[in-house]
Specification:
371 residues; alpha/beta; eight-stranded mixed β-sheet; 30% helix; disordered N terminus
């Protein structure tokens, strides 16, 4: 659980040799063993086409892949973790691109399937303003939207992971993917895997009411909840207006205003419902982690922003990486805001994700040449 932050830098007051009950959020993290993946995740990964301006004007497009869960998987693999991804792609060239890219990035894809009766999904990115990008989905009836619980049961049971990572995107795609996610939650509980849920609400895929109905059902099974501040109400009964347990320590380095107090109250209510740790992404102001022991904030890393798409997934990869390494909340947040900054500073969903050896590069002065 999170240690008590100091007034100065937000670090834990206890000595290095003192017990750290917050070493793993919620339930204990399963030990690392040969053949046991660090993380198992699944969902739809699509072919992504990125234009340089308005789509109606035509022009060239860059071809890549994109998917929240596979973005996290790639981020974790680059940091040296054993990650398995499951999903369904079409029996087409687009599906082969998805599988080839994930395989090349070191993600284990033995749980992936090919659906000959449906195409691989498509995602179009349309930059309209320097900091505004429109996203167009072509995924209705796609192979990824037909992923079944049977596929997930086989993939999960073949090698139960230390952490199951879910997002709120997968259950939004279809009733079958919703059943697959519910199956994964049950398997995680049976095998003792920690559950991480990134809310990742997408208004173009389902309504807030539909999302809330599913997410509120899942919350008691979640150990680590990751969400933006406007997504927290989706996880709370009645839209998040209920009272939560008062948190003894306010977030450090965050202005004490009404919005901050509301987030803290909502986090307290989620802790009361059984979540072990809530991590709130606050964009340019950083992120705050809440547990029953208190809260801790880390500001965002200052970088020249190039593309904000994928920053949240990179943040999650950094957070889970540090959790797997046994870091406390300060270390988890520090690595998360670092990997998030790498994503913001690079174009693409996952292309800028750092390797472990690159994590320290953000501290280098401008103009540094690494030889």
């Amino acid at each position: 659980m999170t240690g008590q932050p100091t007034a100065g830098g937000g670090e834990d007051r206890r000595g290095a040799d003192a017990p750290r009950p917050w070493a793993a959020a919620g339930r204990p993290l399963l030990p690392c063993r040969p053949g046991r993946p660090d993380v198992f995740t699944f969902g739809e990964t699509m072919v992504a086409l990125r234009g340089s301006g308005p789509l109606r004007l035509g022009g060239t497009m860059n071809v890549s892949i994109a998917g929240a869960e596979s973005n996290v998987a790639i981020g974790l693999a680059r940091l040296g973790h054993h990650v398995r991804w499951a999903g369904a792609v079409g029996d087409d060239e687009a599906g082969q691109l998805v599988l080839r890219t994930l395989r090349a990035e070191g993600v284990v894809i033995s749980g992936a399937t090919t659906d000959p009766g449906a195409p691989t999904g498509l995602l179009l990115f349309e930059p309209r303003l320097p900091e505004v990008t429109r996203v167009h989905y072509y995924r209705a009836g796609s192979a990824g939207s037909r992923l079944t619980a049977e596929v997930i049961q086989r993939a999960f049971s073949a090698a139960p992971p230390r952490i199951l990572h879910l997002t709120g995107i997968t259950p939004s795609l279809s009733p079958t993917t919703r059943s697959a996610a519910r199956c994964a939650l049950q398997l995680a509980r049976e095998h003792g895997s920690l559950v991480c849920l990134d809310v990742n609400f997408r208004a173009r895929l389902w309504t807030a009411e539909e999302a809330a109905e599913v997410l509120r059902e899942w919350i008691p099974a979640v150990d680590v909840l990751i969400a933006s501040d406007d997504e927290l109400p989706l996880c709370l009964p009645g839209g998040g207006g209920g009272e939560g347990s008062p948190l003894p320590f306010p977030p450090q380095d965050v202005p004490a205003d009404e919005a901050t107090a509301t987030v803290a109250t909502q986090a307290g209510a989620l802790l009361d419902r059984g979540v072990g740790e809530i991590v709130v992404k606050l964009g340019r102001t950083g992120a705050t982690a809440f547990t029953h022991s208190g809260s801790l904030h880390r500001p965002a890393k200052p970088v020249r922003a190039v593309d904000a798409v994928g920053a949240g997934d990179a943040f999650v990869a950094g957070y889970l990486s540090a959790l797997l390494d046994g870091e406390g909340p300060a270390g988890r947040l520090e690595r998360a805001v670092t990997t998030g900054a790498f994503a913001v500073a690079s174009p693409g969903d996952w292309e800028g994700a750092p390797t472990r050896s690159e994590l320290g590069m953000l501290g280098a002065p401008p103009g540094t040449v690494v030889r």
